[in-house]
């Protein structure tokens, strides 16, 4: 082998090594960009949770002010009666009852605050798990958010269905499988699958689907059946609902607005039975 051939082979080896390094750097950059996107999404959701908690704290502060006023009134009443030699049984019972009520309201506020903190933490953990499971957060066709204490997963219909159809595509079944895995891991969670359309009049085959409302219902039930039959989500935890064109998230005057309105929404339902108990007024 000549010196020129040896030099040529050396240059080829260096080029190949450089190419491999560039590919690794590119993959690392892509991973870093995805992690940065996740970080920004979580910061946004955290800010929304903070806003919801601020509203809850304002309501709690109002209750605390009411308790302070009640305490002040009770103290004034006791001061007025201090100089009296005799307090009637009725008066004494009334004072005792007022002070007991203050204790009940104090305990109620503490329980409510703990419940709010618990709910916020659970919702945040659920959002993180869902975003981690779905993975591709840069895809604008999947949106996971918390609004007023409720977790929503919006999936664009172009990922789930063909135009005017309600059969779920193979790609969409893979996405639903990732969502199902998270939902199954939270056995106390119930959720609703909502179908939504734009306001374009349905013009499909006659007799199969009546209108947009009918289409939205069939799409919701198609998703529910896949979650139940393929991914074994317990059916008693799911509700299928069709909202048609009547709950838009954007104007239907543009193509972008129409596309945003054509979606399937998974709503993580709050545990109302627990919160109704906490929100019951303390007995006087």
Brief summary:
The longest helix is centred in the first third of the chain and has 80 residues, at 3-82.
Which helices and strands, and how do they pair?
Blueprint: H1 3-82, H2 89-134, E1 142-147, E2 150-156, H3 157-160, H4 170-184, E3 190-196, H5 212-229, E4 238-244, H6 255-261, E5 263-269, H7 272-279
Parallel strand pairs: 3-4
Antiparallel strand pairs: 1-2, 2-5, 3-5
Helix pairs in contact: 1-2, 2-4
Explain what you see.
The protein is an alpha+beta fold and 284 residues long. It has one domain (40-276): OmpA-like domain (60s Ribosomal Protein L30, Chain: A). Helix content is 63%, strand content 12%. The protein contains seven helices and five strands. Strands 1-2-5-3-4 form a five-stranded mixed beta sheet. Strand 1 (142-147) and strand 2 (150-156) form a beta hairpin. Helix 1 runs antiparallel to helix 2. The protein is extended. 18% of the residues are buried.
Average predicted local confidence, pLDDT: 76
Overall tally of domains = 1
Number of strands: 5
Straight-line N-to-C gap: 102 Å
Figure out the total of helices: 7
* Percent of residues in beta strands: 5-15%
User: Helicity, in percent?
Assistant: 55-70%
Name of the top-level CATH class:
Alpha Beta
Unreliable spans: none
- Give, in order, the helices and strands: HHEEHHEHEHEH
């Amino acid at each position: 082998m000549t010196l020129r051939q040896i030099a040529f082979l050396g240059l080829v080896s260096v080029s190949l090594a450089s190419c491999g390094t560039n590919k690794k750097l590119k993959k690392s950059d892509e991973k870093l960009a995805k992690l940065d996107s996740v970080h920004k999404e979580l910061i946004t959701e955290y800010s929304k949770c903070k806003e919801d908690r601020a509203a809850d704290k304002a309501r709690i502060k109002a209750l605390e002010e009411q308790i302070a006023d009640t305490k002040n009134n009770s103290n004034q009443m006791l001061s007025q009666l201090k100089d009296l030699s005799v307090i009637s049984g009725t008066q004494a019972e009334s004072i005792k009852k007022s002070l007991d009520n203050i204790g009940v309201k104090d305990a109620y506020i503490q329980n409510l605050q703990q419940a709010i903190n618990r709910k916020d933490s659970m919702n945040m953990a659920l959002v993180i798990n869902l975003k981690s499971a779905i993975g591709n957060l840069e895809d604008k066709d999947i949106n996971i958010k918390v609004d007023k204490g409720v977790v929503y997963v919006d999936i664009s219909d172009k990922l789930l269905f063909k135009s005017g159809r309600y059969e779920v595509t193979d790609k969409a079944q893979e996405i639903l499988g990732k969502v199902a895995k998270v939902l199954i891991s939270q056995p106390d969670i119930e959720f609703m699958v909502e179908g939504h359309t734009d306001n374009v009049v349905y013009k499909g085959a006659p007799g199969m689907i009546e209108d947009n409302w009918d289409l939205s219902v069939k799409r919701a039930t198609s998703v529910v059946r896949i979650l139940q039959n393929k991914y074994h989500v317990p059916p008693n935890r799911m509700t299928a609902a069709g909202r048609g064109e009547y709950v838009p998230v954007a104007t239907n005057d543009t193509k972008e607005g129409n596309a945003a309105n054509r979606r399937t929404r998974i709503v993580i339902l709050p545990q109302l039975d627990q919160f109704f108990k906490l929100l019951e007024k303390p007995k006087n």
